[in-house]
Amino acid sequence: MFKSIRWRFTLIYFLLVFMAMAMVGFFITDQLEKIQLDSITESMKSHISSILASSSLLQGEEWSENSQLIDELIENNVQIGYNESLYIILNDSAKTIIASSVRSTMGDSAYESRRIDNLLVLDSLKGDIVETIPSEDYDQPEGRVKHMAYPVNNKDGSIEGIIYLTYQLDSVYETIGETTIMLTRATMLALFVTVIFGFFLARSITGPIKDVTKKAREMSKGNFDQVVDVRSNDEIGQLAMMFNFLTKELKKNISSLHQEKSKMETTFNYMADGVITFDMKGRIIHANPVAKEILEIDDEKETDGNEILSNLDYQLTREALVENEFLGSAIINIDDMIYNINYAPFKNEMEEIGGVIFVMQDITEQQRLDDMRKEFVANVSHELKTPITTVKSYTETLLGGALEDRETAESFLNVILNESDRMDRLVKDLLRLSRMEFKQAKWNKVPLHPCSVLEETVEKLKNRAEDKNQNLVFGRCTEEIEVMFDKDGLEQIYQNIIGNAIKYTPENGEIKIGCHVEADFAVVEIEDNGIGIPEADIKRIFERFYRVDKARSREMGGTGLGLAITRHIAEAHHTVIEVESSMDKGTRFRIVMPLSSRGEKNA
Q1: What is the pTM of this model?
Q2: What is d(CA 348, CA 351) in angstroms, rounded to the nearest whole number?
Q3: Beta-sheet pairing, 471-475 with 510-518
Q4: Burial code of 287-314, b = ≥16 C-beta within 10 A, e = fewer?
Q5: Nearest to 37 by CA among 125, 147, 124, 116
Q6: Which domain covers residue 44, as residue numbers?
Q7: CA torsion 590→593→595→596, rounded to 10°?
Q8: Is position 439 within any domain?
Q9: Tens digits of residue pLDDT in 370-411
């Protein structure tokens, strides 16, 4: 009977479905058990942690002296699930149960209780959290139970006692059993359906033979778009595959030219660079969407290619192209954008120059970065030139005889020292900024109260504000909040921003400083009524060496790198700094820091 293709197919499908359903069933029940047990384990750990956190009695020493209070705590204040049992075991010689949700075990030795795993208690005394799941034949009055022993240390590091929690697993394994029954029924149904469909499917095996015959007749008429469905890998399937291979090769040879054309069009259309092709008369042969956008070419209007190129740059006139033999490059500006244009000739079927291809690459960002590098070098040179010139001139004066006048010499030496300190600060700021830009800075992120660090910083800067008779208003935050931050980094952010507020606020001015919570963020606000920042300059104040008023900034000192460093510190801690300012009215900085979660604290 099984020599027939029909029955062979039916048997194969039956076995495949059976094996697949068996593996799926085993996987589902195994994963279900694992997920359930993992979830219970995490729940038990969380429950024990919450019990520990609920009272200082369990966190300190002298459980033996406070056993009555601990028992009252467990009985009255700790919620125990209907399928849980809790035992507080004192680490004495008998391992006495001093508190329990199972009142009958009070005062018993943990070693003698049938409800407690003695080996688990011994293992937990080594200082580790241990757990176990007894097998079905384990002698337990509650049935199959998960056990967890959680050792609690006192201040000297020794173990004061054990919090022992059990969880009945009957409901878990009832669920797994019901799932197994459901999967078994599904398997039986799938096998029944497989037999029915397999029987009728086998009858369709002769269909491909008729299909091959019909499509071979169509090929004899010149229609090569014929494909036979391959339904098996036997002789019939191999015949169908060879038939399809024949039609595929014939069709591929016929459509190769069309495919190449389509490929080129797709490449041109989706290139990031602009590509445009002209023939030798200057007519546009092809232009991709990027080139059309750059050159503002309208498909509905006739466009003169020679005129377009001449308007772009003198290097792209027809005479210049002929002189360069249609091969070269040029950098041009179009609507505040910078493009690097490379062009080269292409040949026609007669091996003659048939036209020129132009590729336009947007290098605006690259040019901007080059300009920034040049500006940075110029700024560093300028910042170093002034103190170096001062040191040199004062040194020459001293060597020229000023050393004889002690008062003058001391004055000059103090100037030299101050300028040296200025160069030292500049170099240190540059090095720190460089490390942060290259992600080499190391941060010691710890939970901090942002208002506490803010208060320390305000205290340090208070004298500077008093020197200018400024009113420093500090609103303390009363909420218990924490952020994950490097303390030195946070303090530097505060110092830079508050220091600038003091520096650019006139005498008798007012600076308001406060801290509060908005949603999941701690917000520190620093507002002054100083000179303000022009709106056009606000977005650039965090750049290196950028000064709104360069002359006034240099008179007031500083390296010009403070806010650049501030920005990098903030970015490294997922912090946003917002700036609002009006000229002659003042400036407000908002430092928005994400509050630390419990997971971050434990990390």
Answers
A1: 0.43
A2: 5
A3: parallel
A4: bbebbbebbebeeeeebebeebbbebbe
A5: 147
A6: 8-173
A7: -160
A8: no
A9: 776 666 666 666 666 767 887 788 787 778 777 777 777 788
